[in-house]
Specification:
Length: 431
């Protein structure tokens, strides 16, 4: 890794922090609050049936440092992560909130798919389902608008096909996203969530002769990143645009939780080339053996971790098919079933143990089509936040005046008490 990459990462952390400290030293109209955040997800995996010679091992699945700041209706978030021997910028955005309305600008996830918007700390398993990994993008630069009501949620945005870690010297493609959610039941311990999302995206117009010109790529490493080979890899060339659609369902009732999605992509190709389609879905459910209920992130309309200390039993079935014979694209197919036990000590610390049985289908990439299984263990720790508040100069002045007044009153009382004591002593002496 180049030295410049580390320098950029440090700058991303230092500049916001320095700006916040500088801001705190000057008069402001309200309070400026800053939080230093962190996250650590450490995984270990052992392949039980291993005809494909997967490598056992350990890794940091997610290691992050960041800063959050709020000032009146404004907020900012900046995170730098270390994954796969690479330092990269994660979320980097500013947001303005007015009641139920939110405007966001910067780098963040597009409003598409339920599980991808979920924090890695809140995932029921070590990885998002294969279909989610294959048919969603990472963070992109853009802007979005969100309406967040009790029963209705709507989010849409405009994004480029670039991120801060991979700014392309080409004519970038763009995407228009939209997501709608209806929550007919949304109360403490009870939730019914029904949603749909769509993405229209154009490919990058690469430099002449670039092999990736007008190309979309769909890939997924499967259920684990301990061995990070892409089992699913579909490359669709001569593309005009892609249209991705998804439907989602989530049910929570006290200790019971159910979540499922179906996602499909269609790539419109140039004349003389057949259009491409790939699809898949998953369903997962869980039950709290101990604990009260499941949390829910209303701001993102996605599931949260169980509330408080909890012991959770969960299962998931995932299926995806990225082969399309008519289009001549063989991206691979896969089915997998997972069982897991998760222990949340508190809202900051947890452990996850999962067993996955993977059934590769036709045209699977880099491995044979023989079934295999893996056991994974995760230790995770999530930002015990350190908060720094910068009070307004007006408030500080008021507090100084109040403190001065208190000191004056206290000094006067002490002086009066001293005088009275002196008078009494004098009187006693006189007697």
């Amino acid at each position: 890794m180049g030295r410049m990459t580390y320098v950029k990462a440090l700058m991303c952390l230092l500049f916001p922090s320095a700006a916040l400290v500088a801001r705190a030293q000057h008069p402001v109209a309200g309070d400026l609050k800053c939080k230093l955040t962190g996250r650590m997800l450490m995984d270990g995996g052992v392949y039980l049936k291993n005809d494909n010679l997967f490598g056992n091992g350990t890794e940091f699945n997610d290691l992050r440092l960041g800063v959050k700041a709020t000032y009146q209706n404004w907020s900012m978030k900046m995170e730098v992560g270390y994954v796969g021997n690479k330092v990269s910028i994660k979320d980097a955005f500013a947001a303005y909130t007015s009641g139920k309305h939110i405007i966001q600008v910067g780098q963040f996830y597009e409003p598409f798919t339920l599980d991808m918007l979920c924090s890695t700390y809140d995932l029921r398993f070590h990885q998002s389902p294969g279909i989610v990994l294959a048919l969603t993008n990472g963070r992109r630069m853009g802007t979005s608008y969100t309406y967040n009501g009790k029963h209705y949620y709507a989010s849409g945005g405009f994004f480029t096909d670039s991120d801060l870690g991979n700014v392309k010297n080409i004519s970038q493609g763009y995407a228009i996203d939209g997501r709608l959610v209806y929550r007919p039941v949304n109360e403490e311990g009870k939730l019914l969530h029904i949603g749909a999302a769509v993405v229209y995206r154009t490919p990058d117009s690469a430099l002449p002769g670039d092999e990736d010109e007008n190309t979309f790529i769909y890939k997924s490493p499967g259920v684990s990143t301990i061995d990070n080979r892409n089992l699913i890899y579909a490359k669709v060339d001569h593309a005009k645009y892609q249209l991705k659609q998804g439907v989602e369902l989530m049910i929570a009732h006290q200790r019971f939780f159910l979540q499922g999605e179906y996602i499909r992509t269609m790539v419109k190709r140039e004349q003389n080339f057949t259009n491409y389609a790939g699809h898949g879905g998953y369903v997962q459910c869980s039950w709290l053996l101990t604990g009260r209920q499941y949390g829910y992130d209303e701001a993102l309309a996605c599931p949260g971790r169980p509330v408080g200390r909890a012991l959770e039993l969960c299962g998931r079935f995932n299926i995806l098919d990225m082969n399309n014979e008519e289009a001549g694209v063989w991206g691979g197919a896969q089915k997998d079933f997972s069982l897991g036990v998760n222990y949340y000590m508190n809202k900051h610390i947890g452990m996850k143990l999962a067993y996955s049985w993977v059934m590769p289908g036709k045209h699977i990439k880099e491995i044979s089509d023989k079934n295999f299984s893996v056991v994974q263990l995760r230790f995770q720790m999530y930002n015990p936040q350190i908060q720094i508040s910068a009070e307004s100069e007006t408030k500080r002045s008021i507090f100084r005046k109040r403190d001065k007044t208190k000191r004056s009153k206290k000094e006067s009382a002490q002086h009066s008490k001293s005088r009275n004591k002196s008078f009494v002593m004098t009187s006693v002496s006189a007697l």
